[in-house]
Amino acid sequence: MSLSWINRGLASIRRNTALDLTLRYAAVFLLCVCALFVIVDRLLASSQLEQDQRLLDTWLENYQRLESQVGLHKLEQVIERDAAFFQRSAMRLELLDGGDNRLVLVQPEGWTRTTRLEPQGGGWFSQQVTRESAPPIELLTGSVALGEGRRLQLGLSAEPREQRLQANRQLMVQVMAPLFLLGLLLSAYFNWRALRPVRDLVETVRTVRAREMSARVVIRNPSSELGELAQLFNEMLGRIEGLINAMQQSLDSVAHDLRTPLARMRLSLESALTRDPREAGRAEGLREALLDCAEESERIEGMLRLLLDLSAAQSGTLNLQPEPVDLVELLQESQALYEDVAQDKAIRLRLEAPAHLRFSSDSVRLRQVLANLVDNAIKYTPAGGWVEIGCRQQGAVAELWVADSGIGIAEADQAQIFERLYRADQSRHEPGMGLGLSLVKALVEALGGTVSVSSQPGQGSRFRVQLPAPPVAGPEGAEMGGSSRK
């Protein structure tokens, strides 16, 4: 039971990024504090030890110099005079002759015998002194040589040094503990504040999952990386919302465009099937019904083919078949194909092009581009207007255009008309799915070119396509380009 509770607690911590970061920071900070504590403690211990060694060195050097200058008898008198100080300072002095026999011993009351411990280097060694009704203590002991083989040993209790170190440790803990807690609180606050944009992002995603597409992330600091992420996320939401709205608006058009041929097919078949088998001309009626069904199915197939071509072009999987193409001939074909449609609407369809403009490209896809642009131009040009198609060569670039005197495109819509399923307000009354221009853009980019539009409402539009046009060899192997004529 306790293990599952711990696992749930760890899982909740991992889900709370601010708490997780705070705990990680606390662990790192605690390790740094402990390392700093150990380093400072070692430095202080080394400094205290050096101070004690310098103190003992000073006493030993003075006694050694005194013995060499005035003799042993004077030295003993000085030692007797300093005995009270040694006893108060927890120091032990021992004067030995050449045979290690004790001549003088000065130490605090209650100290009994000593035991020599390990050497500490540099002529220093440790001694342990037992005390009456008290735990033993350790002495830092130094030794100097005197005349006639005598030695003087002076030891200093390590207990005061340890007390000072303990006081320093307590002081460091008293200083570092509040600093650690303050750092922990500041870390928690800054982590919470830094991750607030992420929480806003999560909340926005939850709102979007609830189908509230108008939700946007609050941008608290646009100049930060998270602020930039929020801006990009809002832009993405805006594009998604626009696409969904466009899809919803286009579904009616798609449904209508599909419903009409399906209804015609159904009516034709019902009409043919309800005729009396003995009625004259029944076979001809069935034949006409089948022809109507074939025509409507071809229209449906064309819609589906358009959607498939658009998806393939936009995903980069469109199968292109480059071949020598004369762009002027393609323009002439488009002019001939749409001449009757233009005349029915009292629209002049004119061509402006050189004699030839040959380069390597996919003629089928170019026909699709021209068909969509010319069809759109005629569709949105009122009676009495004109539509112009043309091309020219500029260096290694072939440029073709389709211009008209139609209703034009608002400036706010010009940046979006090439998006899938987008339809400007003034074009919604016309039949269509909003895929023609997006297919044009996808095909042109698949061919390595660019497409642009310039238009003003009420003054017509001009679509310009620029394609790479490397020259191709003519019938006799010569490179051929375009010759200029109107």
Automatic annotation (TrEMBL):
GO CC annotations on file: plasma membrane
EC number annotated for this UniProt entry: 2.7.13.3
Keyword field: Kinase, Membrane, Phosphoprotein, Transferase, Transmembrane, Transmembrane helix, Two-component regulatory system
Example of a GO MF term: phosphorelay sensor kinase activity
Any coiled-coil regions, as ranges: none
Reactions catalysed: ATP + protein L-histidine = ADP + protein N-phospho-L-histidine
UniProt main location, coarse: membrane
Residue ranges crossing the lipid bilayer per the database entry: 25-44
Stretches assigned to the HAMP domain: 192-245
Gene3D superfamilies (UniProt xref): 1.10.287.130, 6.10.340.10, Histidine kinase-like ATPase, C-terminal domain
InterPro entries tied to this protein: HAMP_dom (IPR003660), HATPase_C_sf (IPR036890), HATPase_dom (IPR003594), His_kinase_dom (IPR005467), HisK_dim/P_dom (IPR003661), HisK_dim/P_sf (IPR036097), Sig_transdc_His_kin-like_C (IPR004358), TCS_sensor_his_kinase (IPR050428)
Bias-annotated ranges (Low complexity): 474-486
Family annotation (Pfam families): HAMP, HATPase_c, HisKA
Segments of this protein annotated with the region Disordered: 455-486
Domain Histidine kinase: 253-471
CDD domains: HAMP, HATPase, HisKA
Subcellular compartments: Membrane
Designated name of the protein: histidine kinase
Organism: Aestuariirhabdus litorea
